[in-house]
Amino acid sequence: MPCYDTALRLYEDTNFSGKILCFVGEGIANLDNYRRSGFPFYRSWNDAVSSFRTPNLASVTLYKDRNASGVRMRFSADWDYETMPPYWNDVVSSVCIPGWNTTCP
User: Fold this and answer.
1) Structure pTM?
2) What's the pLDDT tens digit per position in 54-71?
């Protein structure tokens, strides 16, 4: 199923390849609550993001720990990140998309 045009898109591999996880709206999400299809079936998205896109979002904040905590990095809208910044590949554990009801720590 494809993502909405306005969705934050997280990719398992560099250059926007591999499995994809989409987020629409606002809020905080812990990536260990989401599963990647394929074998083994228990693999979560925790520590698995290698590229991402932020179309039409005000910003997105990525965190190295659950519950929007720990070291963080904020990214602006309408950017494509084919590779993660140094020391951020396969370490993202939660994301925050700000909105009317959500502020990102």
Assistant:
1) 0.92
2) 988 778 999 999 999 999
